[in-house]
Amino acid sequence: MFKTIELMKKALLFFLFSISLTFAQEKAPGYFDVQLFRGNVIKHTDDIGHLITGHPDGFLLSYNWKTFGKNEWEQVYNYPDYGISFHYLDFKNQYLGYNVALGLHYNFYFFNRNLMFRISQGIGITSNPYDKETNNKNNAFGTKVMDNTYFMLQYKKENIFNRIGFQAGFMLTHFSNGRFKAPNSGINTFALNVGLNYNLSNDKPEFIVDSLPAKASFKERIKYNIVLRTGVSEGPVPNLGQRQFYHFGFYADKRIGRKSALQIGTDVFLSRYLKDYIEFSAVAFPEKDINPDTDYKRIGLVVGHELFINKLSIETQLGYYIYKPFNYETNIYQRLGAKYYIYKNIFAGVGLKAHGGRAEAGELSIGIRL
């Protein structure tokens, strides 16, 4: 079990490192931004009410590389930035303490580059994880190391005073271990932020504007995908035990342009933790008359969308269980993930499978697109 856990951690770090190599493969003008934020914890489930006692605040430090259109994808996405960021978040709650996170991000621009949207994926660490003896009120973070995702929408203006600029807006940050270990209600924080940016160079390279290939050139025949997603997860009851899971995906996709492909297919879920939870529920809730031998396997139909950037793509999927003998969670599930194409049509990735605001599994994946 411990070997599997360590393997998962190394695989996640390798995935992030691979993306970071893509980010840093070319020297480009860069800039720093420093931001302060303050906000509120979103009560996405009733069992975290005792964890909302104040207004969380913190700071965000980022380094960003600019793009100017040397590569075709940079022109397609209106010359985005990419970078690395660190943020600190104090929850103002004795059970949660504070979190720190390190992540990789993209900045996308709209409305004459005055509006910036950032998406970041990284790893977080909490100061006060759940402990049965010393911190059993923290039902949000069952492990010290977690996944962190944040989104940011801002007004941004550079070089207002020499190289110093201004930015302000909104931020949504999520910490969860993907139910790697219970408990794992997770915490979502919505905050207002304000900060300054500083360009390291006075140079103002011009954007390269080429004639992009016609949209028709990106149309492909239907592609067929086979994906294995795996990892370790635990049932919703602490100390029930961590178990390996295997999620198999079989789906077709149709490219509809440079950026997008639509997907349809099926998922097969072999989640061993669910077998343990069925057996536990049969004993703990005799009034429900649960058969301990109920099949734990599930099958779902799924539709999705893949957003191609460069070698990296963002995948969103919505699924519905057509086979689920045990009445657990809702019949609808979601998946959000990042994929990195290692070689042509071979990809690896990380993702989160959830039911609404409740995470079920943090998935590591390997697949092929034929």
Succession of helices and strands: HEEHEEEEEEEEEHEEEEE
- Quaternary assembly: single chain
Average residue pLDDT: 89
Contiguous runs where pLDDT drops below 50 for at least 5 residues: 1-15
Count the DSSP helices. Answer: 3
Amino-to-carboxy terminus distance: 33 Å
Report the sheet-strand fraction.
over 45%
Query: What structural class do the secondary elements suggest?
Result: mainly beta
Helix content: 10-25%
Write structural notes for this entry:
By secondary structure, this protein is mostly beta strands. Helix content is about 10%, strand content about 55%. The protein contains three helices and 16 strands. The strands form two sheets. It has an eight-stranded antiparallel barrel with strand order 1-2-3-4-5-6-7-8. β3 and β4 form a beta hairpin. The longest helix is centred in the N-terminal third of the chain and has 22 residues, at about 1-25. It is flat, with a radius of gyration of 22 Å. The chain starts with a helix and ends with a strand. The model is unreliable at about 1-15 (pLDDT under 50).
